[in-house]
């Protein structure tokens, strides 16, 4: 039962992570990460810089979320 809870949590988090990670890919050119930028010009280098920083922080938050969940679940078993 314990292993199944881990797997369900991790699958949900990974699916959410992949959807968020590919937000720019699945959105139209008028949107930049869900923000309507039709009349605003963003240079390619600015978009790449924002994209890289966003994805790095997103990956870090994924790892931290999984580690915190495992830590909390392990502590609950020990108590």
Give structural notes.
- The chain has 79 residues and is mainly alpha-helical.
- It has one domain.
- The chain contains three helices and two strands; from the N terminus they run H-H-E-E-H.
- The chain has a two-stranded antiparallel sheet with strand order 1-2.
- The mean pLDDT is 83.
Detail the topology: elements first, then pairings.
Blueprint (H helix, E strand, L loop, with lengths): L1 H20 L1 H4 L4 E2 L2 E2 L7 H35 L1
Antiparallel strand pairs: 1-2
Helix pairs in contact: 1-3
Helix % is over 70%
pLDDT < 50 runs, ≥5 residues:
none
What structural category do the secondary elements indicate?
A: mainly alpha
**Strand portion:** 5-15%
Gross morphology:
elongated
The largest β sheet comes out as:
2 strands, antiparallel
Report the strand count.
2
**Strand sequence of the main sheet, in spatial order?**
1-2
The radius of gyration is 17 Å
End-to-end distance: 17 Å
Alpha plus pi helix count: 3
Give the rounded overall mean pLDDT.
83
SSE string: HHEEH
* Number of domain modules: 1
What's a quick, concise take on this entry?
With 79 residues, the protein is mainly alpha-helical. 75% of the residues lie in helices and 5% in strands.
């Amino acid at each position: 039962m314990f292993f199944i809870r881990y797997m369900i949590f991790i699958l949900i988090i990974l699916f959410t992570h992949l959807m968020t990670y590919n937000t720019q890919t699945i959105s139209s050119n008028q949107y930049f990460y869900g923000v309507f930028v039709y009349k605003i010009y963003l240079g390619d280098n600015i978009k790449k810089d924002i994209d890289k920083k966003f994805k790095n922080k997103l990956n870090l938050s994924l790892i931290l979320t999984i580690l915190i969940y495992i830590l909390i679940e392990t502590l609950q078993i020990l108590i």
